[in-house]
Design a protein that fits this description.
The protein is an alpha+beta fold. The chain is 13% helix and 19% strand. It is built from two helices and nine strands, in the order αβαββββββββ. A five-stranded antiparallel beta sheet has the order 1-2-9-4-7. It has a four-stranded antiparallel beta sheet with strand order 3-8-5-6, with no helix packed on it. The chain is globular, with a radius of gyration of 17 Å.
């Protein structure tokens, strides 16, 4: 019950408008590699899901920023710190998409420490049949793992750390309704299976960091945010939504 029906409807409409406006985001999973792309990614993100990266930074008609702004006070209470919207995603896992293997989110972020969290909010009923989110309970206590190749399930090239960590923990796949949400620790291992429901499974996920956290490009040197956000600065140095710097923020 985090979002009311009106907000869920607006997010559903925004995803549909993004879909109608053009091509979803391309491959953005390899944040540590040189420009050569591994053979495992030739199918691209389209093999895993439809995804639109950072709709909050879009022009007003397509932007999720007003919805994120309404969340700030609530997220502030979770973080016990001033919240900064680092990135967000509108995504749809449809029948035919491949499963997502277990992974942590933090290894994909150009941030110094695993602070903050991800608010994962389904826009359709979610359960295991619909490719719901499965979490490895307590796995955030096991430390930082490698960035995962989400096509193969193994560590990205150049990383040898084990990816067996999540298998040591009990798995849970919550049943969620539109308007519910899960707050994910950056180091929590999670995955999603195939969508066998026959319908789309739409989600809005927003990533929030405490304002005093700092950018560290070396952690994810090919993340798109490294082109916009100065290395070493506090993430709150350019407002609560730094990727929209230059736009009006309240």
């Amino acid at each position: 019950g985090v979002f009311d029906k009106q907000t869920v409807g607006r997010l559903q409409a925004l995803l549909d408008e993004q879909r109608a406006a053009g091509t979803p985001s391309r491959q953005v999973l390899y944040t540590h590699l040189p420009p050569a792309v591994p053979a495992s990614s030739q199918e691209g993100m389209a093999a895993l899901m439809e995804q639109w990266l950072n709709p909050h930074a879009c022009a007003a008609r397509l932007s999720t920023l007003p919805i994120a702004e309404k969340l700030r006070e609530w997220v502030r209470s979770l973080l016990q710190a001033e919240p900064v919207l680092f990135q967000d995603l509108l995504m749809s896992k449809n029948p035919g998409h491949k499963p997502f293997p277990f992974h942590q989110d933090f290894p994909f972020w150009p941030v110094a420490e695993p602070a903050g969290g991800v608010l994962w909010a389904p826009l359709d009923p979610v359960d295991e049949e619909a490719g719901g989110l499965t979490v490895a309970c307590g796995s955030h206590l096991a430390g930082i793992g490698p960035p995962i190749d989400l096509h193969s399930g193994g560590a990205q090239p150049g990383f040898t750390a084990t990816v067996e960590t999540p298998l040591r923990f009990a798995a849970l796949t919550p049943v969620l309704d539109p308007g519910d949400a899960i707050w994910l620790h950056p180091l929590l291992w999670h995955r999603s299976g195939r969508n066998r429901s026959g319908r789309q499974r739409r989600v809005w996920a927003s990533t929030w960091l405490p304002a005093e956290a700092r950018w560290l490009h070396a952690r994810a040197p090919r993340h798109p945010a490294t082109l916009r956000l100065p290395d070493g600065e506090p993430v709150g140095a350019h407002g609560w939504a730094p990727l929209t710097a230059g736009q009006v923020q309240s």
